[in-house]
Specification:
Shape: globular
Structural class: mainly alpha
Helix content: 40-55%
Number of helices: 29
Distance between the termini: 85 Å
Mean pLDDT: 80
Largest sheet: 5 strands, mixed
Strand order of the largest sheet: 2-1-3-5-4
Number of strands: 5
Strand content: under 5%
Radius of gyration: 27 Å
Length: 759
């Protein structure tokens, strides 16, 4: 034991004198995957980008993370990440890349932190391999290339981990307080998701520190109290502020941050009850199937245009379109069926699970011979920490009612840590011919290669049979050769071990590059040959990142004029309502997607704030995206210049340029103009913010005059919308629509513009 500690100390001392040259290419790989071509994403996730635009305009908007410059409603997350994005935009100018940059740097920082954390205890090669595994975990760069929160969240939790490890090494209580306070900061990034690492922190501190139980309890209690205080600090300030002096707390039903934290962004994620309408947190079963969260109501149709075109032959025969992912599509947004093997199901496995079998074998090797009562080595203690991070998070994703694929980045650090530590440990056991343990290395290689073949098999049309067969064959051959050569010690065996690791990382590396190769989706980031769809489904035929996301969608007031028939969407199999699927405010009929009730576009599907074209998005041949920048982000891709000119010209001092049902139509106009646009019902249109009496008062005070209404996102605002229609005059479409077409269908088509003036 003393000899091992002296070796670690000697290695640490020598490493301080020089840069690890092996780490340099790993960092460069991470930088390429996280940064390359982020400048092509002009809007990023437009919902959050609009908030940054608003936060740049005043400290009031900055502090509350207001979605709109008028301070009407906030976004649905706490502000810390968006404070950082706003500062970045202030320094570098307001661009899509400047709001993405902090997350991209956080992704690179996570790779470096994992190297430092693993190397100190498990050795430099373990640190290198862990860092490389983290960099090549597909969901890591996919998320880091957007302005979503999760990359920054993981980086912050790894900083907290570094503080905790330092607290144990130095036996200084101050570092314990700092570690738990950092988790409190992470809470103010994505609320309860930050607490998923708490079991690891508690278990590790109890096991690793050599102090009395009385002190352990006292220290952990104090640190937890500090964490809770930091966590709720912003929430208490906001909830204590008079509602008329701050924006409405977006996506909450009681205008409360705490309700948002422990409800919509907390327990409801586990139960799956995240769809809300009006003041109720519950919906009928049919409505719960139509949208699992206001956060993603418009994203189930975010496939690239060419992906839509490639599926027409299948949809034309059945008048339905397969849900993204093909095969087993149970679960919202291709997150599979709850169960112990959920992480191995299609749609999730290709994001995070490439190395899971090897990790399982590594865990067996690292804990082999450990006695429950100890004593534990430093390696065993830190292995316990990563296991206590991995297992609870894996269990959550295995049983959760609702989450998105990109949340799986929470599993990346422990998987990468075990991959690095396990590779060195299993190799050592193999070389020492340590009984049954020496079989763990070839066994881990063989099972991991088998899983990777399974993961790739649905994508044969995109990546080819040769790639899949090559990985499988090489994995089997190398595992068998290592098993046969187990009694030999020479350079050839060493090369075989290195080759096996390269094979196991080859396809994750390719998958990690797919957001660059095929284009990404900033609203629902995911890796894979269909990464531009953000749905983790079957490969699309899109190869141009400029055409990914929502480039084919039409802005409010424009008509697409490019439609094809028989491309109606089918819900994931296993959903309720006889396999039918609804969009918000709509109804289902024989498994086909229907427009909102009352629509005149029978059988057509309308996107939020967008156009309806026989349930189809334009295909690649009709795409209008030819610029060097793409405007995806799950929002309308363009601003209708004629509508904007009309609203600007006829504004007579009103605070809001116009009001609309939800954020989908509002966000691009906020980004382009920096002017207040009112999303009356918040992100999804279901927030109970506005009443008829309040709206009357706003109109009388001259705060708003124009209302752009599409059929979507009514939710709890149905009374308000009904009153608007009954007390307004409709503006002729010729005055504000960018084009005229027979496909124009009023409020259920591209939407209708109304004007209200009250004396």
């Amino acid at each position: 034991m003393k000899h091992m500690n002296s070796e670690v100390k000697e290695e640490r001392t020598s490493n301080k004198k020089r840069i690890d040259l092996f780490l340099v290419p790993i960092v460069l790989i991470a930088a390429f995957l996280n940064l390359f071509k982020i400048w092509t994403d002009e809007y990023a996730n437009a919902y959050y980008t609009a908030a940054v635009k608003s936060m740049l305009q005043s400290f009031h908007n900055f502090f509350y993370a207001s979605f709109d410059p008028g301070g009407y409603v906030t976004i649905d997350k706490p502000p810390v990440v968006f404070w950082i994005q706003t500062i970045s935009a202030k320094i570098f100018g307001f661009h899509g890349w400047s709001v993405i940059l902090p997350q991209a740097l956080a992704g690179i920082g996570s790779v470096l932190l994992l190297y430092v954390l693993v190397k100190r205890t498990f050795g430099v090669w373990a640190g290198r391999f862990a860092a490389l595994a983290m960099a090549l975990t597909p969901i890591v760069p996919a998320v880091s290339r957007t302005n979503n929160i999760d990359s920054m969240l993981v980086f912050t939790l790894l900083v907290a981990t570094w503080m905790l490890f330092r607290a144990v090494r130095t036996a200084k209580f101050g570092w314990v307080l700092a570690a738990f306070a950092m988790i409190g900061v992470a809470f103010n990034m994505k609320m309860l998701q930050a607490y998923m690492v708490l079991p690891a922190f508690y278990v590790f501190y109890v096991v690793a520190t050599k102090i009395t139980w009385k002190k352990k309890i006292a220290f952990l209690t104090t640190a937890t109290a500090l964490m809770l205080a930091v966590s709720v600090s912003w929430a208490v300030v906001v909830d204590s502020t008079s509602a008329d002096k701050r924006p409405y707390m977006g996506s909450s039903q009681t205008n409360s941050v705490l309700e948002l934290a422990f409800g919509y962004n907390g327990i409801n994620r586990l139960t799956g009850n995240t769809s809300v309408t009006g003041s109720s947190h519950k919906q009928p079963a049919q409505a719960q199937q139509q949208t699992a969260s206001s956060e993603t109501k418009q994203t189930s149709n975010s496939n690239a245009e060419s992906s839509q075109s490639s599926n027409q032959s299948k949809s034309s025969s059945s008048k339905k379109m397969q849900a993204p992912g093909g095969g087993n599509q149970n679960g919202m947004f291709n997150t599979g069926n709850p169960g112990p093997f959920r992480l191995f199901q299609k749609g999730l496995s290709d994001q995070i699970s490439w190395l899971l079998p090897f990790v399982i074998f590594s865990i067996v090797g690292l804990f082999a011979g450990v006695k429950f009562k100890g004593p534990y080595t430093t390696k065993q203690k830190e292995s316990l920490f990563w296991l206590a991070w991995l297992l609870p998070v894996a269990v959550f994703f295995s049983i959760a009612g609702f989450f998105h694929q990109y949340y799986l980045i929470m599993l990346a650090p422990p998987i990468a840590a075990f991959a690095g530590a396990g590779a060195v440990a299993l190799w050592s056991m193999y070389k020492q011919r340590n009984g049954w343990k020496s079989w763990l290395l070839p066994g881990g290689i063989l099972t991991t290669a088998a899983l990777q073949v399974y993961i790739m098999s649905p994508y044969v049309s995109s990546i080819g049979v040769a790639s899949i067969a090559g990985v499988g064959a090489l994995g089997v051959i190398l595992a068998l050769v290592l098993a046969v050569r187990k009694e030999r010690k020479n350079a050839v065996t060493n090369y075989l071990g290195v080759a096996a690791m390269v094979v196991l990382l080859a396809m994750p590396a390719y998958w990690a590059m797919t957001p660059i190769i095929y284009g990404g989706n900033s609203m629902l980031p995911a890796a894979g040959p269909d990464s531009s769809s953000g749905m983790g489904g079957p490969p699309s035929t899109a190869t141009n990142s400029k055409q990914s996301g929502f480039n084919g969608m039409q802005p409010p007031g424009s008509s697409s004029g490019n439609s094809s028939s028989n491309n109606q969407m089918q819900p994931p199999s296993g959903s309720s309502n006889g396999g039918q699927m609804q969009m918000p405010g709509g109804s289902s009929n024989n498994g086909q997607m229907q427009p909102p009730s009352g629509s005149s576009n029978s059988g057509e599907m309308q996107m939020p704030g967008g156009s309806s074209n026989n349930s189809q998005m334009p295909n690649s041949s009709s795409s209008k995206s030819s610029s060097s920048k793409r405007k995806s982000g799950g929002m309308n891709a363009e601003v209708n210049k004629k509508l904007l000119n009309y609203l600007t010209k006829n504004n007579t001092g009103e605070k809001y340029l116009f009001a609309t049902t939800d954020s989908t139509s509002a966000a691009p106009y906020i980004i382009e103009t920096g002017k207040p646009v009112m999303a009356m019902g918040g992100f999804s249109g279901s927030d109970p913010i506005l009443t008829v009496s309040k709206l009357k008062a706003m109109i009388k005070k001259g705060e708003v005059k124009y209302f752009y209404l599409s059929g979507m996102g009514k939710g709890g605002q149905s009374d308000v919308i009904t009153w608007i229609k009954e007390n307004s005059k409709e503006i002729p479409s010729s005055k504000w629509q960018s084009t005229s077409s027979s496909s124009q269908q009023g409020p259920s088509g591209n939407g209708t513009l109304y004007e209200i003036t009250l004396k």
